[in-house]
Amino acid sequence: MSLLLQYGIIVSAWILSLLMILVIPRQKRRLAMVAFLFKQYITCIFGHIVVELQLLAYPVREFAEVNRTSFAYEYMAFPMTCAVFNAYYPSHRSGWIQFGYYVIFTTVLIIGEVLLQQYTDLIRYVHWNWFWSWATIFLTFLMTRAFCVIYFGTMRGARYI
C-alpha cells in the first residue's frame, strides 16, 4: 500500500474521531471528556510499554522522531471511541447486556486493527497477536468505566453515569 494512502488513513482517523464529538449527547459531555482524558492517560502508558518491549511496531506514523507509537490511535481515535462508549453505556440494563456492550466495542476495534495490520504498514505485530490487543482494549474500557463510575459517584447529585 502506498505511503500516501497510509497517511490518508491516519488523517481519516483524525477526522472521524473529531466527528464523533457530534454524537455525544450534551448532558453526557462531561462524562465523555473524563473518559476521553483517562483513556488517553492509560493508553499512553500501555502503548509505550508495548512499543518499548518491541511487542508492536508502528512503521508508518506521525511524529516519528518524537514518539514510536501511533499518535492518532493512542491519543485520539481510541480515547474518542471510549468517550462514545461511556456516553451510551447501558448502565440500567442487565449485566449480560453490559458485558455484550464491552464485547461489541472491543471486537469492532480489533477487526479494524487486524485489517490495518494485514493490509498496511500502520501497525505490525512483532511478538503480539489480535487476542492480546482484544484483552488490553477490553481491560482499558473496563478501567475507564470504573474510573468514571467512581469519579462521578463521589460527586454529590451527579447524574452522569
Please give a quick description of this structure:
The chain is mostly helical and 161 residues long. It has helices at residues 3-19, 29-52, 71-87, 95-119, 130-153, and strands at residues 56-57, 124-125. Strands 1-2 form a two-stranded antiparallel ribbon.
How would you sum up this structure, described in words?
- The chain contains five helices and two strands, in the order ααβααβα.
- By secondary structure, the chain is mostly helical.
- Strands 1-2 form a two-stranded antiparallel ribbon.
- The chain has one domain (3-20, 28-153).
- Helix 1 (3-19) runs parallel beside helix 3 (71-87), helix 2 packs antiparallel against helix 3 and helix 4 (95-119) packs across helix 5 (130-153).
- The mean pLDDT is 90.
